[in-house]
Design a protein that fits this description.
Blueprint: E1 2-3, E2 6-16, E3 22-33, E4 39-47, H1 64-87, H2 91-102, E5 130-132, H3 145-153, E6 170-183, E7 186-197, E8 202-218, E9 223-236, H4 246-251, H5 256-275, H6 280-287, E10 296-298, H7 312-320, E11 337-350, E12 353-364, E13 369-380, E14 386-395, H8 398-407, H9 409-414, H10 416-419, H11 425-443, H12 449-463, H13 488-496
Parallel strand pairs: 5-9, 10-14
Antiparallel strand pairs: 1-2, 2-3, 3-4, 6-7, 7-8, 8-9, 11-12, 12-13, 13-14
Length: 513
């Protein structure tokens, strides 16, 4: 149909894939001409053809109550595994029974009732279960019983990054089904779940379950009759591990004070591990975000082949040692250190995140002192407590610095002519004028702390050479403790004020001039 400048079409499109499968889709399209006279789509609608089906919420084979009971049993089993693990009971056997009775994995029990090991490298047939956990390391998709087992209780040998979701010692499990689709022998459910541990920490997300009704007659598992088995399970949660509530996220503000509290907690835990009051796992869980967020950790004293610790187990090994996968770890926190602290040189705050650069200071009871540099990122957990989701620390290495300097000689030679060119009097006077104008510009925003601070940063970045190398700055109005400023953050604080690291600064450039 053509209505003036508008053309409309409706019909069916047949799409052939490379395997010879044909997919039929109904379409509605609208066309107009562009200024060049070419026909363009301005309406495009595709849909699958309607199929006569039973859309009732119930069928004679599976009821909503059956689905609710199967999900409830799944969650209760996960809780039970963690409680058995905490009590040092047989959690492995409970896990195997859970996987065999909740999922539709092929049975791995022999005729005599013994567990039959399967070669993980053997060729695989078609998957009977499609399982995507919310927070698993690779492989993200678990289609075999061994892969699912590793997710729930860990497997250091074949899946070293799995820490064991069911071993968290959960206290309760709750779910809310948003809707179900019921068919003869098949059912699907979608909704939200929440696990809570004994410390009050909660993990919430969304789920999609797919079930099949199986005729069960298994003497080994002591089961008979009809049972629902999971064939599809997709679990997901927002990146911060809680329900996606933007209003709630907005309230979890990250402040200078909360960063300082996180840094003090890290230092206190380091010392407490050394004194024997805390374990390394308590240090990692208390200071790092492994349990709810991907976390990047580059320790200061880690061998080259294990320099990066992306797993909770790797971080614990660095601080405590004793892990054969990280054989070179001797237990950094067990030296012991009597004190550890962070000194932040610059800090940037974003909604829900903070970035920090600075120095680390370790002090042992023997009097040994060590200084390192660090870069860190902090995010808030569900309770608003800041944890490290990135931590890069490095001790000064003179030999490494010398090697880097040698590598840089070629680049320095290219700039030699420019760097050695004389500075003219006109250039100096022009620069001084620009500096004075920048100071006045900061003062023009004296009533707005945020704007004044941004202008002070621009002043420092344009007028001072922090990006080129060391800068020495001695301000006129500064107290004795902060009279010499060698960091960008310190100079910004002098001109703009409002930095808790330099509480005496009232903002020299905000007078206003």
């Amino acid at each position: 149909s053509v209505e003036g400048p508008q053309g409309l079409a409706m019909g069916q499109a047949l799409l052939n894939d490379t395997n010879g499968n044909i997919t039929a889709l109904d379409y509605t399209m609208g066309y107009i001409r562009d200024p060049m006279g070419k026909v363009r789509l301005n309406l495009f609608f595709l849909s699958a053809p309607f199929e006569e089906a039973n859309n009732a919420t119930q069928c004679t084979d599976i009821s909503p109550d059956d689905v609710h009971a199967a999900i409830e049993d799944w969650g209760s089993s996960v809780v039970s595994i963690g409680q058995r693990y905490a009590r040092r009971w047989d959690y492995f056997g409970r896990t195997m029974r859970f996987l065999q009775t909740s999922f539709d994995f092929p049975s791995q029990y022999g005729t005599n009732g013994e567990w039959v090991e399967v070669d993980p490298n053997a060729p695989r047939g078609p998957a009977q279960v499609l399982f995507k956990p919310a927070d698993s390391a690779r492989p993200h998709f678990r289609t075999t019983l061994e892969e699912a087992q590793a997710y729930f209780i860990g497997d250091q040998k074949n899946f070293p990054k799995d820490i064991g979701f069911a071993l968290r010692n959960w206290k309760t499990f709750d779910f809310v089904v948003a809707g179900t689709i019921l068919r003869p022998k098949h059912a699907w459910a979608m909704g939200e779940y929440e696990f809570e541990d004994f410390s009050g920490y909660k993990v919430a997300g969304q789920f999609t379950f797919g079930f099949i009704r199986q005729e069960i007659n298994d003497d080994v598992l002591d089961e008979a009759g009809k049972a629902l088995r999971i064939t599809v399970l997709h679990m997901s949660h927002p990146h911060d591990g809680v329900k996606l509530d933007w209003h709630d996220l907005g309230r979890r503000e990250v402040t200078y004070q909360s960063v300082e509290e996180a840094q003090e907690r890290w230092g206190r835990l380091i010392a407490e591990v050394g004194a024997g009051y805390r374990s390394a796992s308590q240090l990692v869980d208390g200071a790092f975000a492994y349990t709810f967020r991907p976390t990047f950790f580059r320790p200061a004293e880690a061998e080259q082949n294990t320099s990066f610790r992306f797993s909770r187990a790797g971080a614990i090994s660095y601080y405590a040692g004793g892990n054969e996968r990280f054989a070179e770890d001797w237990g950094f926190a067990t030296r012991p250190w009597s004190a550890a602290r962070m000194q932040t040189e610059d800090l940037v705050l974003y909604p829900g995140q903070a970035l920090a650069l600075g120095h680390l200071f370790y002090e042992a009871a023997t009097g040994v002192r060590r200084k390192a540099q660090f870069a860190a990122s902090y995010v808030a957990d569900q309770r608003g407590v800041l944890k490290l989701n990135l931590f890069h620390e490095a001790f000064s290495n003179d030999s490494a610095a010398e090697a880097l300097a040698q590598q840089a000689e070629g680049f320095l030679a290219l700039e030699e002519n420019v760097a050695s060119a004389p500075v003219s009097l006109d250039q100096v006077q022009h620069y001084q004028d620009l500096w004075a104008q920048a100071v006045v510009r900061v003062g023009e925003a004296s009533d707005n702390q945020t704007v004044a601070r941004e202008r002070a940063k621009e002043l420092v970045d344009k007028m001072y050479g922090f990006s080129e190398g060391p800068v020495l700055f001695k301000p006129t109005e500064a107290n004795a403790e902060t009279r010499i400023r060698v960091t960008r953050a310190g100079v910004v604080a002098y001109f703009a004020g409002g930095d808790p690291m330099f509480p005496a600064d009232r903002g020299f450039a905000r007078r206003p001039w």
